[in-house]
Design brief:
3 domains; 10 helices; rod-shaped
Length: about 475
């Protein structure tokens, strides 16, 4: 946008400079032409008067001296045709075509002292003439060959001065256009960044009130709106977290009462109903735990986005972590769950050299645990493979299985809150696991990618940028995790 606005203003500035300089140069050409014309017309009139006197008394010597003096002073040729003879000076001859034409026209008592407008790089001379005589007879004519070299040199000097001044003016106008463009667009760019920040994080810093009055008012309005939206979103998030936390106490008390009721109903027909109530209560507890985890993950993701856009002071950088030991620990911890689900759990060898990522080990462990739990839950009896791969400047912690997997449409919706595949309606779950993993990945500068495993199944990857401060990235292996 800045380039487009600056381009339009630059074109307008250059057009203005061109018009101004063109007007000045045209005026200079007319001025010098008029000055030369007046000067030469005066000289032509004086020579005509001397020639008239010479035609009356027959003394052409004085006329010749005047002509030679003029030609020596200005370097211009003169031809004077009298009734008895033709005089010439300055190397101009009466046999030249334009001189003959001028003498012929002058014989008709017609004069021409007008000069063509000067051009800075023109060449050649121009002929002016006038007849002389009495009221009843043309006695002769004077032809003057005007050399405009000196006037053209003056015109070129003026052109040079105007050109330098035009360049200076253009530079000043372009600089002014750049400053005006920045002054006008800087608040717009800040507003755009603030809108993007608000969309990503639900928060936006206070916009400085700068630029034109209308944009200052817009900045104030946006700041007020952003504060309202941020407060509303934070209030909603806090409400969910507080509600989930506060429900844990009554749910815990209810569970205790149901456990006591189940003991009292042992052996009675109502015992099965109490067990079903406890199962539903366990589902409620699982949902509350998931909501609390999601609220914490969203808060972490919001903090990470705020740091990314520079709205808050940058905290100390996350320590570079080798994700393989974290993955190995989670695989060992999940081995009993894998055996219970009938899954074969495989840990691929660690990459060499080690691939580092900047993330929090505890949150990485939580993400891996969620993905392993999902694999065991929704792909029982499958082979679950856990591995760390590095390629194209990224590190991927991947959990894949050869189970039934998800369709492309289902994978696109899998990270949505409380979404569950219709095929898994009978499997216990909250539909929050993938959402929590996605939020935690974003909080650590990474992302969750769901893809189809080969030849079938689901591949869940947590991708991070490769940490290269201490360890250089490996050569491109050709793999692409995008």
């Amino acid at each position: 946008m800045r380039l487009r606005v600056l381009g339009v203003l630059s074109v307008l500035c250059l057009v203005v400079v061109f018009l101004i300089s063109g007007t000045i140069l045209s005026s200079a050409s007319r001025e010098l032409t008029q000055e030369l014309q007046i000067n030469r017309a005066a000289s032509l009139n004086r020579l005509a008067q001397v020639a008239f006197d010479a035609s009356g008394d027959g003394d052409t010597a004085r006329l010749q001296r005047e002509m030679d003096t003029y030609s020596g002073l200005y370097g211009e040729g003169i031809v004077v045709r009298l009734q008895q003879e033709t005089l010439a000076s300055g190397g101009l001859g009466a046999d030249r075509a334009d001189v003959q034409e001028a003498l012929s026209v002058a014989r008709l008592n017609v004069s021409n002292t007008a000069l063509e407008p000067l051009e800075p790089f023109g060449t050649g001379s121009q002929v002016i003439f006038r007849p002389f005589g009495n009221a009843s007879q043309v006695l002769g004519a004077v032809v003057l060959d005007v050399d405009a070299a000196t006037a053209r040199q003056k015109l070129r000097e003026r052109w040079l001065g105007v050109g330098v001044a035009s360049l200076a003016l253009a530079a000043i106008l372009l600089f002014g256009a750049a400053r005006v463009t920045s002054w006008v667009l800087r608040p717009v760019l800040r507003l755009n960044s603030a809108v993007n920040e608000l969309g990503r994080t639900g928060r936006a810093g206070r916009l400085p009130e700068a630029g034109p009055p209308e944009l200052r008012e817009l900045s104030r309005s946006f700041t007020a709106m952003a504060r309202t939206v941020s407060a509303s979103m934070e209030s909603q998030r806090q409400l969910i977290a507080d509600t989930s936390h506060q429900l844990r106490n009554p749910v815990g008390a209810l569970r205790l009462r149901l456990d006591l009721l189940q003991l009292e109903l042992k052996g009675a027909p109502e015992h099965d109903a109490a067990e079903r109530a406890i199962a539903e209560l366990e589902r409620v507890e699982e949902i509350l735990d998931g909501v609390l985890k999601l609220a914490a993950a969203e808060h972490r993701a919001s903090e990470g986005s705020l740091r990314a856009v520079g709205s808050h002071p940058e905290p100390p950088a996350s320590e570079a972590v080798d994700p393989y030991p974290v993955l190995q620990g989670e695989v060992e911890r999940a081995a009993p769950l894998a055996a219970q689900a009938g899954c074969r759990l495989v840990l691929a060898p660690a990459p060499r050299p080690a691939a580092l990522a900047a993330c929090k080990p505890a949150e990485l462990a939580q993400m891996v645990g969620e993905l392993l739990g999902n694999a065991f839950k929704y792909a029982p009896g499958a082979t679950v493979t856990a591995q760390v791969r590095a390629a194209n400047g990224r590190v991927a912690v991947e959990i894949s299985d050869d189970g039934p997997g998800l369709s492309e449409a289902e994978r696109a919706s899998a990270a949505t809150r409380f979404w569950r595949s219709p095929r898994h309606a009978s499997v216990p779950g909250t539909g929050l696991g993938m959402t929590i993993v996605g939020e935690l990945a974003a909080a650590n500068g990474g992302r969750l990618v769901l893809a189809e495993a080969a030849p079938h199944g689901l591949s869940a990857r947590i991708e991070f940028p490769l940490y290269t401060a201490q360890v250089p990235s490996e050569p491109d292996s050709g793999e692409n995790y995008a």
